[in-house]
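Record 1 of the preview.
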Amino acid sequence: MFRSLLLLIVGLLALLRTSTAHNVKLEAQKRECFFEDLRSGDTMTVTYQIGDSDASASSGSAGIDFWLNDPRNSIIKADKDVQHGEYTFVAARDGRYTYCFSNEASGYTSKEVGFNVHGVVYVDASETPSDPLETEVTKLSKLLEQVKDELEYIMIRERVHRNTAESTNARVKWWSLFQIGMVAGSGVFQVYFLKRFFEVKSVV
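->
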């Protein structure tokens, strides 16, 4: 029983170590870069979702740029003007892999970037644990990782949709106030015009 509990704790700690979630605010004309040190054969996945940090910003505003460089600084993946994305790759060599988010194309709108980074460390078949309990703990860790990523993705989507809804509601409110003002102004003008039209003028 104690060994089972210990293996479960180790598995959860491994999950926390190999899965990382971040939220960063990208100001206009700025970029943010991060890195992961990988060994040849390791698998890494980057998922990201973009939202306007200001609810009043336009929901149709441009996205950001994303790119990933290998240890030799060669671009592995590059996306332009994207709102969300996911990229999985297997490290071809040992070294530092850098991924960047850029809001440099935006002149004034800041962006909120939520992203997850998780990976699978390559393990030689001869090093695979023979204990079925350890195998099940590993599977459980991977399933928990998938659930965690999915929940974080849903939370980011909810925040983006909420910002869009608040922006739309604000526009509807101001447009309604403008229409009320136009109707009131038109009514006042018509009353004034009709009053002048039917006004009897006497010549002395």
